[in-house]
Amino acid sequence: MKSNAEADIAVGNVVPLDEPQNHSGAERAHVQVVGRNGPSPQLASALRRITPLLWLTVIIPTALSGIYFGFLAEDVYVSESRFVVRNPDKPQKTGLGVLLGGAGFNNASEEVRAAQGFIESRDALRALNVRNFARRSWGSAEVSIFNRFDPLGWSGSFEELYKFYRGKVDVAFDPDTAITTLTVRAFDPNDAQAMNARLLARAEALVNDLNERGSGNLVKYAEREVAESREQASQAALDLASYRNRSGVIDPERQAEVQMEMISKLQDELIGARMQLLQLTTASAQNPQIPLLKVRIRGLEGEIEDQLGRIAGDRGSLSAAAAEYQRLQVQRAFADQQLALSLAALQEARNESRRQHAYLETVAQPSLPDAALEPRRLRGFVATLLLGLVSWGILSMLLAGVREHQD
After folding, report:
1. Which whole-number Å values give the CA distances from 219 to 111, 226, 337, 348, 353, in the listed order?
2. What is the average pLDDT across 287-311?
3. 318-354 vs 252-283: helix crossing angle, rounded to 10
4. Contact at 8 Å (CB) between 60 and 160?
């Protein structure tokens, strides 16, 4: 068996030969584990067993994650607000909408989508970045270089700011409750609240602008329809008056009725004259009134034919005039009716424009965070560790399979 001095020499400890070797058992164990000039053999063996793959996949990433989340990651404050857009005219579709419909409020999904699209647009960023407010807040030199906007000052373009903006601003619409949640992240709680309030105000202004624009367009369209209908009615009245002047007929139907009455009277007189002629011819063939009666009968027959010709027959008759007159009369009546409908529509459009159709109602005001919710440091550190272990396990099995295949 080796002596204690030999054991000390074996673990790398130099023991003077003249030193008494009367150490106790505990002291000898301490010397064997710790040693005097370096790590113990067990620790050195454990370090030697750590493969480069374990260093690359687990140890180094986990250490970097601990450094980042522990010392470098900047606190992020989250401000949240909630709003809903109501429209008293649109039908309800959801169960909650039916309950709200009893109070006369409906969901305005088009306006909600418009507000959501605006918040996610570059116009919203321009409204938010007045006097470089967003750029100064997100790109402050006091913010960690790993988190702030344009940390190296290489690319501070508007498009880069917009990409950063999309990562810090989120708007989500819940179709079940018709509530839209606006979330803004910033490195200062007051800035987060101010950004949220400014975006909420701009969304409300957008809804109001849509209302005014829609109402204004509706009134303008109705006014244009009235102007066109009035012009058509005036033109129809002028066409009818011009036709009356050309044809010399005020109302063909009434004039035809008058002429028919005249023809009826002439026919009665003709019948009477013929009866009288027949009587005189039978009683006294030499009666001097017989030639006069014949002349009268011929005159009555000619007048009747002339009156009938005026009513129907030639191109200048009342029947031909009545067709054109009825067309113009129908055209005028239609134009007058269209004008009346356009005037009613204009009045309705003006009444609608006086009412506010859709409006934004704030359910929850922008919050002022009193603590940073992000980053979730412990969760990020643990996630890095677990992901590294999983990666190490998978890669270890793959490498083992490759070595086995090569052997």
Report:
1. 20, 10, 20, 9, 7
2. 74
3. 150
4. no
Where residue 317 falls among pLDDT bands split at 50, 70, 90?
A: low
Q: Is the peptide bond before 375 cis (omega within 30 degrees of 0)?
A: yes
- Alpha-carbon distance of 388 to 372, in angstroms, equals 27
How far are the Cα atoms of 240, 307, 310, 323, 327 from residue 316, in angstroms, in the given order? 17, 12, 7, 12, 17
Residue 351, burial from CB neighbour count under 10 angstroms (0-12, 13-18, 19+) = exposed
Confidence category of residue 122, pLDDT binned at 50, 70, 90: very high
47 to each of 33, 71, 106, 390, how far by Cα in Å? 15, 27, 69, 21
Distance CA 93, CA 107 (A): 8
Q: How many CB atoms lie within 10 A of CB 401?
A: 10
Classify 374 as helix, strand or coil.
strand
Kind of pairing between the strands at 77-86 and 169-174: unpaired
In contact, 220 and 353? CB cutoff 8 Å: no
Tokens coding 388: 């590294």
Task: Say how far apart CA 127 and CA 149 lie, in whole Å.
Answer: 18
Helix axes 109-119 and 189-247, enclosed angle (nearest 10): 130
Amino acid at 105: F
* 384 within 8 A of 73, measured Cβ to Cβ: no
Is residue 77 within 8 Å of residue 186, measured between CB atoms? yes
Over 70: is that where the pLDDT of 277 sits? yes
Beta bridge partners of 143: none
Q: For the beta carbon of residue 28, count every other beta carbon within 10 angstroms.
A: 14
Length of the chain: 407
Asked if 362 and 90 touch (Cβ cutoff 8 Å), the reply is no
- pLDDT score at 11: 38
Q: CA 60 → CA 1, 150, 315, 376, distances in Å?
A: 44, 27, 108, 20
Instruction: Detail the DSSP E strand segments found in 28-143.
Output: 77-86
Q: What is the pTM of this model?
A: 0.58
User: Do residues 203 and 360 make contact, with C-beta atoms less than 8 angstroms apart?
Assistant: yes
The closest of 257, 233, 256 to 329, measured between CA atoms, is 233
Percent share of the chain, pLDDT over 90 = 23
